[in-house]
Specification:
heterotrimer, A alpha+beta (about 775), B alpha+beta (about 290), C alpha+beta (about 160), B: about 290 residues, alpha+beta, Uridine Diphospho-n-acetylenolpyruvylglucosamine Reductase, domain 2, Uridine Diphospho-n-acetylenolpyruvylglucosamine Reductase, domain 3, Enolase-like, domain 1, 3 domains, 4-stranded antiparallel beta sheet, 11 helices, about 35% helix, globular, C: about 160 residues, Ubiquitin-like (UB roll), DNA polymerase, domain 1, 2 domains, 5-stranded mixed beta sheet
């Protein structure tokens, strides 16, 4: 363990640990292959599971016969939805979002109807995976195939085939009479829209489409479960939230939460996609029936066809601006695909669509629509990227029409402290302006882009971030180190960023903290690793645990020095008392064992002001006008990160998010045939960027500390995915004169526009 | 995965014997980069998998004055690892360098690529451009088939029951020649060709006129295509944009692509021309370099 | 079921015998039979590189190798990359450059990088990017991975000099 030498930022000069770059505590395990991920769990007598999944996008299950599968030698259990208890229409809160339990149960194992290709129907546990897979093939099933609905606009048609005959639209708060695929229509309004557009000198209005895309984490979903004879269930799994996984598993199986223990294994990526459960209840029931531990691991195709994705969408934006460049009015219409069950992130999309600007008169309509695709899940700033793609390309077009500088236009209209967002909240201190200025002043922006068919684009983005609940517990060891126990699964280096806040508070080295992520029986309630909240909220809990240790050490020192505790204080890694008495943290740690009860710090937090994050990105592209292929030449992302606790991992979040956004912008999409089969459910044809598709991603960490956190932390993980598709679209326009309004901006689509334009110009 | 037996014969005769015995329900394993996935996905359910990598002649690559004798199971990395292949049979080196990533290239073979008979195979158009012949061994002895006649449909080829591809014979390339294979993929690596194009040109001593040309296409028909007319029309003509334009048009004429997740018909037809031009331009540049021009 | 085979192979310098069915991949045998779970499964069709091991010095996707094919081969897995004490310079560089977030792709990247540096000890950025394109990472955007491999190349050179 060592800390990598690196210049600290201005904001973190005042700190000893915060702003440095220690090697992450779990690093050696992860570079040597010793770290254990979900599928690495091995238990004595463990069986392998396989699942039967629907080959149809929409069908009634007429009959299901598992008897042959059960008879195959080596098979120990077969389960179907009949083995799950009936769940009512109850909504369970998952921390980041919520879920209807009946829908969740049907998603885990389909009942009478399958709603998308890949929908799980039955599962088998056997001696090995090959036998389990053979048994799955022996399950006899008859389908009545129904016409699928694959696109949000088709699903909204009055005569569209219905996915749920009991789903009735929540139309601005009123429940409609007739069933529909539209689960919800809601609206945000402020100001006087008509007057706003009347005051505009230029109005631009367009429709945008975005494709369904997947989070793409490299580790497939997994769960290993043991349903013990005493009625207690243990689940070992890769999850973004052990406690939400526990809650969902308990609710779906109708057992008390105290009977479910979720043990977090290392998690191989999630980005929002590993919050809701798919496998644990199934593995648990297989275990109950077989009396053995059972492991289920999805294939890559299962992951694409049955988990994730983030919604395809149609978005219409109308924006009015006066001659001076002030936005006078904005209107947005967003329809998002929820997948098979209601619950798309259209709400967040609707809140984010105008969130970067001060728009006095605005109206936003949002529609949550079911289609025959997998139930959508959170994906890094869920809903915001779709909306930003639409809004930021309209902004670019307005700037062009009014011949305004895109930087100046954004600065003029930027949301600042006190701006009211269309859905109501008024911003506290935020860093939107600072990120735009950072881009304006950076070397990339200042260097002119030269060359044929090249273009430069910029875009901004916003994400709320969330707070929620976290617990941390810290034990002082006699050698002067601290054991830190926490409930936030570490998806990208948060052991380090949390331990660093504890270390800073105690005035000790990051390396002297030993962080461990533990199961649901071993720590207090902790919400999901999501919403960019872990460094913020679990960091806060660690800070509180450290303060608790400080207080106890002060008490103890007062006892040792036989003085009043009010005369003792903790500062700079030491306890100071009257008469020049002083004990360093290490000295006190050594004394603690012989002078009283063990010193254990406790921190539980539910912070309310996560501090929204803004990012502004700048990209240079070159377009091959003969093929429509876009090459990213240079990329810079500036982001308000509050305080960068571990700058290397903050940069990493921004780089990773930006590249996911680049993939979304240029090539990623669920490609369906008319029957509703995803034709590209492999990494070969679902084209996530590779090393060879990208330049280095430059980052600018803008630090506008969050007043709502002791160390000024803001969430940093999500917002970097928001600006890239729009920034790319704006760059492509500069390079080719073509406005792309549909994602992905893949070569066939861009070439189509290039050829069309050439034809028009030629004619 | 489907259950199968595994055999690893050490001679061609032995392999033919096993193939005959299993009468159509055996699959040959070279690099396995297609086959193992196809068995896992249930596309093939063979009784036996015959690993041909223990057969010495299938693993040998000989480059002589007469050309290249390329064992059917020689992995890609060994092919582009030969400086002589890179210099004189550039199209083949180009193709083998871009099949999959480093991991795939450690195992995947050009013979396997041909026998898998995918329309988008990268190495097949390169072989066609270089005028390659497939050497097939079977119960009735050996026979030779020009590579452009080897594939008969998606996943289908001329191999009869009991037959296997043993080698590819690439003729020595004339001194005044150059060749190139390239493909279009949306990413820069790890993709299946949306369109592929190979070319081989022979120039006269001035480097200004075509003596002959061979053009091949991938992913724009049910099999990799030999665009013979497109190449033939260049013979004896001066190297010029206009003439190359004619070849592009002729290449487009034989393309019959489909709409799928890798590209639209419109896109593939247009790009067929673009890649034909680019394949020719690079081949011409290489030929001129070989001429010292 | 097809008869099981005895396979003799060398893994990380140690000769090992194992029993496997012909249909079992090398990845499956490493993870399930030999309990070497450092090699990860990301896609099982050769498109992500998480299961990369070195086979006779060359990187391969172990999901696309039948275990029986490893008869007589020299295999190196992530478990064999570090020396008895300490770490390989590639591993150190990954830690120092913060080149991992979730870490699931890391073993595959490190093994592939070792394959690269064995055949090309001082690659350019372009060469690193080309060689590692068969390894997908979804967390990092690759920036820090590329820097780590370039750093490791330099560190290895300094050791050899």
């Amino acid at each position: 363990m060592a800390t990598i030498e690196h210049e600290k930022t201005a904001e973190t000069q005042k700190y000893k640990v915060i702003g440095t770059r220690p090697i992450r505590h779990d690093g050696v395990d992860k570079v040597t292959g010793r770290a254990l991920y979900g599928a690495d769990k091995r238990l004595t007598g463990m069986l392998a599971g396989a699942m039967l999944r629907s080959p149809h996008a929409h069908a009634n299950i007429k009959s299901l016969d598992t008897s042959l599968a059960e008879k195959l030698p080596g098979v120990h259990a077969v389960v179907t939805s009949a083995d799950l208890p009936d769940c009512t229409d109850k909504v369970a809160n998952l921390g980041e979002g919520s879920v209807n339990l009946k829908h969740l149960s049907n998603n885990v194992l389909a009942g009478e109807k399958v709603l998308y290709r890949g929908h799980a129907i039955a599962a088998v546990a056997a001696d090995d995976i090959h036998i389990a897979q053979e048994a799955v093939k022996l399950i006899k099933i008859e389908y009545e195939v129904l016409p699928p609905v694959l696109h949000v606009l088709d699903a909204m048609q009055e005569n569209a085939p219905l996915l749920h005959d009991d789903l009735k639209t929540d139309e601005l708060g009123e429940i409609a009479d007739q069933p529909s695929n539209v689960a919800k229509h809601f609206r945000f309004e402020q100001g006087d829209l008509e007057a706003g557009f009347a005051a505009a000198d230029v109005v631009v209005e367009h429709e945008f489409k975005t494709a369904t895309v997947h989070q793409g984490y490299i580790e497939p979903h997994n769960a290993t479960a043991l349903w013990n004879a005493d009625g207690h269930i243990t689940v070992w799994m890769s999850t973004q939230g052990t406690f939400t996984a526990r809650q969902q598993t308990a609710e779906l199986l109708h057992v008390p939460v105290s009977h479910v223990k979720v043990v977090p294994m290392e998690i191989g990526g999630g980005f929002g996609g590993k919050i809701s459960v798919y496998l644990p209840p199934v593995a648990a029931v297989l275990s109950k029936k077989s009396g053995r531990p059972v492991q289920l691991v999805m294939s890559r195709t299962d992951v694409f066809e049955a988990t994730g994705p983030t919604p395809g969408s149609v978005i219409r934006i109308k924006l009015g601006v006066d001659k001076e460049g002030n936005i006078t009015a904005g209107e947005a219409w967003l329809a998002y695909e929820a997948g098979a069950y209601p619950g798309s992130p259209v709400g967040a999309g609707a809140m984010c669509v105008f969130s970067c600007y001060d728009i006095p008169n605005a109206k936003v309509d949002g529609f949550d629509v079911v289609v025959n695709k997998p139930r959508t899940n959170a994906y890094r700033a869920p809903g915001a990227t779709n909306a930003a793609f639409a809004m930021e390309t309209v902004v670019d077009e307005i700037c062009e029409k009014l011949q305004l500088d895109p930087v100046e236009f954004r600065l003029k209209n930027a949301a600042v402290e006190g701006t009211r967002r269309v859905d109501g909240p008024v911003y506290p201190r935020i860093g939107m302006v600072e990120t735009i200025e950072a881009i304006r002043d950076c070397e990339h922006f200042q260097t002119p882009l030269e060359g044929k068919h090249r273009g430069r684009g910029m875009a901004t983005g916003f994400w709320f971030n969330i707070g929620l609940k976290s617990t941390a517990q810290a034990t002082v060891n006699p050698d002067g180190t601290v054991g830190l126990v926490e409930g936030s699964t570490d998806i990208g280096g948060t052991r380090a960023s949390i331990a660093m806040q504890l270390a800073e508070t105690l005035g000790i080295a990051a390396e002297d903290v030993v962080p461990t992520v533990v199961d649901t029986d071993s720590i207090g309630y902790t919400d999901v690793t999501g919403g960019s909240r872990v460094t913020f909220a679990t960091g806060w809990a660690a800070y509180l645990a450290a303060i608790d240790i400080q207080d106890q050490m002060v008490e103890r020192a007062a006892k040792i020095w036989d003085c009043d505790a009010t005369k003792v204080h903790y500062e700079d890694g030491a306890i100071h008392g009257p008469d020049g008495n002083k004990l360093t943290f290490k000295e006190m740690a050594a004394k603690a064992q012989t002078t009283g009860e063990p010193i254990i710090g406790r921190g539980s937090a539910d912070p309310q002001q996560p501090g929204g994050a803004f990012g502004t990105h700048l990209v240079d592209v070159e377009v091959d006008v003969d093929t429509g292929k876009v090459t990213v030449l240079r990329y810079t992302a500036a982001q308000d990160v509050g305080t960068a606790i571990h700058p290397a991992y903050v940069e990493g979040q921004i780089q990773g998010g930006a590249v996911q956004g680049i993939g979304w912008g240029l090539n990623e999409e669920y490609y369906y045939d008319d029957e509703g089969t995803m034709r590209n459910s492999t990494y070969l044809d679902y084209r996530m960027p590779t090393t060879y598709d990208l330049p280095m991603i430059d980052t600018i960490l803008v630090e506008v500390p969050n007043p709502g956190h002791p160390y000024g932390v803001r969430g940093v993980g999500e917002v970097p995915i928001v600006p890239p598709p729009a920034a790319l679209a704006n760059a492509i326009y500069q390079a080719t004169g073509i406005r792309m309004r549909e994602l992905p901006m893949s070569p066939p689509k861009l070439l189509h526009e290039i050829l069309g334009k050439a034809k028009t110009n030629g004619a | 995965m489907h259950d199968f037996e595994y055999e690893a014969p050490s001679t061609v005769a032995e392999a033919i014997g096993i193939l005959e015995k299993h009468n159509g329900s055996a699959r040959l394993l070279a690099g396995g980069t297609d086959l193992i996935d196809q068995i896992r996905m249930g596309r093939f359910t063979p009784e036996v998998v015959i690993d041909v990598k223990k057969i010495a002649e299938l693993m040998q690559m000989e480059v002589t004055a007469d050309g290249v004798q390329l064992g059917a199971a020689v992995p890609c990395y060994q092919i582009y690892g030969s400086e002589q292949i890179c210099r004189e049979y550039s199209a083949l080196a180009d193709a083998t360098k871009i099949i999959g990533g480093a991991q795939i290239q450690s195992r995947a073979s050009v013979g396997g690529n041909l026998c898998n008979s995918g329309p988008a195979a990268d190495s097949t158009p390169a072989l066609i451009a270089l005028g390659t012949t497939a050497v097939i061994a079977g119960p009735a002895g050996t026979r030779e088939v020009p590579v452009e006649e080897f594939c008969t449909g998606p996943g289908q080829n001329v191999l009869q029951r009991g037959e296997l591809l043993t080698a590819l014979k690439i003729p020595a390339q004339p001194a005044a020649s150059g060749s190139h294979y390239l493909r279009f993929i949306p990413r820069n690596e790890m993709d299946i060709a949306a369109v592929g194009a190979g070319a081989q040109v022979v120039l006269d001593s001035s480097g200004e006129n075509f003596v002959s040309a061979r053009i091949s296409l991938g992913a724009v028909g049910p099999t990799p295509l030999f665009a013979q007319e497109a190449g033939d029309l260049l013979a004896g003509r001066p190297v010029s944009d206009e003439v190359i334009e004619e070849a592009m048009e002729a290449a487009r004429k034989i393309a019959s692509p489909i709409d799928d997740m890798r590209g639209t018909i419109e896109f593939r037809l247009h790009v067929t021309g673009v890649l034909t031009r680019r394949a020719l331009e690079t081949s011409i540049a290489r030929a001129r370099q070989n001429l010292g021009k | 079921m097809a008869k099981k085979r005895v396979v003799t192979t060398t893994i990380n310098g140690t000769q090992i015998e194992f029993l496997c069915q012909p249909r079992q991949t090398l990845l499956e045998v490493l993870r399930d039979t030999l309990n070497m779970t450092g090699t990860k499964e990301g896609c099982s069709n050769g498109n992500c590189g998480a299961c990369t091991v070195l086979m006779d010095g060359r990187p391969v996707d172990s999901c696309l190798v039948l275990a029986v094919e490893s008869e007589g081969a020299e295999l190196e897995t992530i478990e064999g990359v570090a020396p008895a004490e300490g770490l390989d310079p590639i591993q150190t560089a990954f830690l120092e450059q913060a080149a991992l977030q979730c870490g699931i792709c890391t073993p595959g990247f490190i093994v592939a990088a070792k394959g690269l540096l064995q055949s090309n000890p001082s690659p350019t950025e372009e060469e690193v990017r080309f060689y590692l394109a068969g390894n997908l990472c979804r967390c990092t955007g690759y920036d820090k991975i590329i820097r780590a491999v370039l750093d490791a190349a330099q560190a290895r050179e300094e050791v050899t000099v």
